[in-house]
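Hi support team,

I've been running sequence recovery on a batch of backbones for a student project. Most finish fine, but this one hangs at about 90% for roughly twenty minutes before it completes. I'm not sure whether the input is malformed or the queue is just slow. I've pasted the structure tokens below so you can try to reproduce it. Let me know if you need the job ID as well.

Thanks,
M.K.
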């Protein structure tokens, strides 16, 4: 579909989050890498892509900026990044899951830099959102804008 571009990134994985889980505990994203992630909601036997996001950016010198605050990296963005108001995802995602009767989230992450690549996560995120928009006619329901 629109995620084939991510196949080149070999540092990747996914994890599940249920409403009563501790996001910090179940999140297996790296604390020393930047990249992109997408979130599927599992509800009533159906799967829906609900969010595409990123962590990090390229600096002026061409090196990757990796989030250092809190846990660091993609993991910190997933756990402590704000969504649904000024609330960290470790709280807002479980709350939103309960509100929407979502059984679990399946979160896939991809580090966009390694010994072979150094791709800006914001650019990759924008491409993914644009491709999704072109195919589906709108953004994933938890996304607000394309940068």
């Amino acid at each position: 579909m629109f995620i084939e571009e991510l196949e080149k990134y070999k540092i990747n994985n996914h994890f599940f989050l249920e409403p009563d889980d501790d996001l910090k505990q179940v999140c297996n994203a790296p604390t020393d890498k930047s990249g992109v992630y997408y979130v599927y909601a599992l509800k009533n036997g159906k799967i829906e892509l609900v969010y595409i996001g990123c962590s990090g950016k390229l600096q002026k010198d061409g090196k990757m900026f990796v989030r250092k605050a809190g846990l660091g990296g993609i993991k910190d963005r997933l756990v402590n990044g704000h969504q649904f108001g000024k609330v960290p995802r470790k709280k807002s995602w479980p709350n939103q899951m309960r509100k929407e009767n979502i059984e679990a989230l399946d979160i896939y992450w991809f580090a966009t830099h390694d010994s072979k690549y150094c791709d800006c996560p914001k650019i990759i995120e924008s491409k993914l959102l644009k491709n999704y928009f072109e195919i589906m006619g709108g953004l994933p329901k938890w996304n607000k804008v394309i940068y």
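--
Follow-up from support: It reproduced on our side and the slowdown came from queue contention, not your input. The CA atoms of residues 60 and 120 lie 12 Å apart. No action needed from you.
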